[in-house]
Amino acid sequence: MQDQPKFIPLRANGFYADQRSARDPVPGAVARGQLDDDPYFLTGKHGVVLGNELPNPLSREDIGRILARGQNRYNIYCTPCHARAGDGNGMIVQRGYKQPPSFHEQRLRNAPLGHFFDVMSNGFGAMPDYSTQIKTADRWAVAAYIRALQRSQHANDADVSPEDQEKLKAPTENKSKVPADSVPPQPPGGGKQ
Predict the structure, then answer these.
(1) The domain 59-154 belongs to what CATH superfamily?
(2) Rg of the Cα trace of the chain?
(3) Residue 97: how many CB atoms within 10 A of its CB?
(4) DSSP 27-94
(5) Partner of 91 at 20 to 30 A CA spacing, among 33, 85, 110, 192?
């Protein structure tokens, strides 16, 4: 039982000519999860410049799925500090933690998409990195959701399709009219008790 036929790491072994028990990997082998074939996907940068686009082209169906996933991950990991509205007034901030900047500041509305990915990946200021908690694809989904969140608070007429603009301008003919005699009388004081 004392002599077992196994290799003990960092201990000499007479089986190989170089007496090492640990062997070099096969040339060209890549550890699982370590294939670095898309640097922009992994860093959010083109060289040293932050990019402003998602790493892969998306269809309409993909966009909905990505934004739903981003919202899910944002609600789990980001809302404690950044709040659901992205204003930086999350629950732990209300309890004394340092307040992060609002995503609705002009500086962050103008920041490239890669900035949000980079901050999630590497941390910034008081914010720690989330690269171990949030997978790479999910960090991109959260960055896309942050951009949608910013857009929702700062939308303009150009963001609405022409068809939807016409619907908004159309008179409200289909609203049902309630006859005045069907409204119950209000008690004195306007219904306040």
Answers:
(1) Cytochrome c-like domain (1.10.760.10)
(2) 28
(3) 13
(4) TT---TT---S-HHHHHSEETTEEP-S-SS---HHHHHHHHHHHHHHHHHHTHHHH-TTSSS--HHHH
(5) 110
- Quickly count: other Cβ atoms within 10 Å of residue 88's Cβ: 18
What gap in Å lies between CA 27 and CA 31, rounded to an integer?
12
Helix or strand or coil: residue 157? Answer: helix
Cα distance between residue 31 and residue 29, in whole Å? 7
Give the residue among 56, 138, 147, 62 at the shortest CA–CA distance from 108: 147
Average pLDDT of span 133-138: 95
Domains of the chain, by residue range, sit at 59-154
The two three-digit tokens of residue 33, written as one number: 């999860």
Q: Are the C-beta atoms of residues 51 and 112 closer than 8 Å to each other? A: yes
141: confidence class by pLDDT, cuts 50, 70, 90: very high
Of residues 37 and 130, the one with the higher pLDDT is: 130
Instruction: Read off the tokens for 118.
Output: 């980079």
pTM for this prediction: 0.70
* Position 34, amino acid: Q
